[in-house]
Model the fold of this input.
Amino acid sequence: MSHTLPNLLQRTHEVRGDHVFYRFGNGLVIKTEIFNKPDKLRILGLGSPQGSLMNHLLNFPEVDQHSGQFFGTNPHQSLRP
Done:
């Protein structure tokens, strides 16, 4: 049986010139650069894989709570406000 998780990210984005600002329901803002910018060192945007991972962590906070795997070495750092 397939189970779809609720989307807790509440993600929106705004393009300003060469930059894209992703805003999330918890107040997090991530600044990236446009996809087709001709710079090999550009900051890549957030796509579906990253959004799925972030949404999964919000839906299962107990996984994020005890893990420093995705957000550095601080086990108390979280996507939650």
Observations:
- The helical segments are 48-59, 61-65.
- The first strand starts at residue 12 and ends at 16.
- The CA atoms of residues 17 and 34 lie 8 Å apart.
- The first helix runs from residue 48 to 59.
